[in-house]
Amino acid sequence: MHFGHVVAKMQGMKMLRRHACQRIVQLLASFPLVAVTGARQVGKSTLAQQVLGDIDGTYVTLDDPAALTRATEDPVGFVRRADGLLVIDEIQLAPQLLPVIKAEIDRDRHAGRFLITGSANLLRMRSVTESLAGRSAWFELPPLLWSEIVAQAPPNTIDQAFAAADAATFVSALRPPSEGHADVARRRAIEGGMPEPLRLDPSMRSVWYDAYRQTFLERDLRQLSHIASLPDFHRLSTLALLRTSGLLNVSDLASDAGLTHATARRYLNILEVAYQVSELGPYFANIGKRLVKRPKLYANDVGMASHVANIDTWDVAQAAAKAGALMETWVVSELRAADELSSRRSAVHYWRTSAGAEVDVVLERGAEVVAIEVKSAATVRWRETLGIRTLREDLGERFKLGIVAYLGDELRLLDDSLCLVPIASLLGATHTSEP
User: Fold this and answer.
1) Quick check: 264 and 233 in contact, CB under 8 A?
2) Distances from the Cα of 211 to the Cαs of 7, 197, 271, 273, 332, in angstroms?
3) Phi-psi region of 243 (alpha: psi -120 to 50; beta: other; left: phi over 0)
4) Which distant-in-sequence residues (6+ apart) come within 8 Å of 91 by Cβ?
């Protein structure tokens, strides 16, 4: 089916343009194949349709049984069927297409031939034996960013932080937030950015997330691995999501779930492959401190983390002592996604000493480091900046900038290399009216 017909049917429908569209178009200008992966329902098909609004081509989804049959029975003919860009949606359903695509690219290596999407990390699936190394670019699509929801430009604050001469220069380049930004940020830290539930009220969002988890257990999981006990897997996934923003201790998680360490680790790997959770590794650059070496575990969609914790408002999150963890989960996800859009990627870590000094996000580009601490309050005391100041002391000249992101209104300097920044300003969502 030629995509032009799809566009015609979608006219008049409200569809938020993804920041990733421009990035994917850029990658297609240089690579024969671009792969977009991410959790089911995160918006990969919509993104592919938006790309085909800029580049002429053909769209096929393997969720269509007839298309899947054609791909399975005649993979060579399926791959060679179209002129221009061929978009193959949900390619994890037919991983046998990848060697055929590789052979086709080797036959004709011009850029912009294939855009594939998948609801699993294809490079970590056992059924995928072809990495397409040297022929492809890979992009992980996150839930909708706050700046996408409010129809603002892609955030470039990470680039600005590394480019700034000092904290004053960085702060002067940012826009102050609009009125009501803190309440909107609190809501985003509960609801997340999965496109479909954003339009639903809290009770219907809960129904949607229940159905999402059930579909994952009954359908998607079978494509990834054999699970002997679905209740065991469901219990492990719930406990993992409840631990979002915490240090990952697989032994404790296994014990709480009533599973062996090996089974718990295997189930966690499956959740990562399916983009339900992710790990953030520790930063080890400084030698003078005893550092925590375990990774931190994050829900990829803070809306799902809120759902499994039965949290639907900020007041409930505070009463459950989950507000800080959910705010951190959401902001860290936004920052990692913003960095993914940048032309120069950062190494992203967290930092914590055994004495308790901590920084939520450490971004490293070459020899320079930008540190970001996330606060879920509207006021920040000087002692709450101890983590960033300790890291700054350890890194010396390598420390570029420290940012304390909070729910207050002021863009404020704390000293030459440390500043307070409203979360809305940091995430590029200063106009918080949602269309």
Assistant:
1) no
2) 28, 11, 17, 20, 26
3) alpha
4) 35, 62, 97, 98, 116, 117, 118, 122
- What pLDDT, in 10s, does the model give residues 361-378? 999 999 999 999 999 999
- One-letter amino acid for residue 138 of the chain: W
CB of 244 within 8 A of CB of 298?
yes
Give the tokens for residue 432.
Answer: 């918080």
Quick one: average pLDDT of 400-419? 97
- 161-183 in b/e form (b: 16+ CB < 10 A) is bbebeebeebbeebeebeeebbe
Question: How buried is residue 410: exposed, middle or buried, by Cβ count under 10 Å (0-12/13-18/19+)?
Answer: middle
Kindly list the structural domains of the chain, giving each domain's residue range(s) and its CATH number in brackets, ordered by start: 3-140 (3.40.50.300), 146-426 (no CATH)
Are the beta carbons of 413 and 170 closer than 8 angstroms?
no
User: Tokens representing 291?
Assistant: 């550092």
What is the C-alpha separation between 49 and 89, in angstroms, rounded? 10
Length of the chain: 435
Contacts of 344 (CB under 8 A, 6+ apart): 159, 365
Which pairing describes strands 33-37 and 399-406: parallel, antiparallel, or unpaired? unpaired
Mean pLDDT of the region 417-425: 98
The CA-atom distances, in angstroms, between 217 and each of 20, 278, 304 are 29, 18, 15
More confident residue, 340 or 10: 340
Residue 286: its pLDDT value, please?
A: 58
Cα distance between residue 208 and residue 225, in whole Å = 24
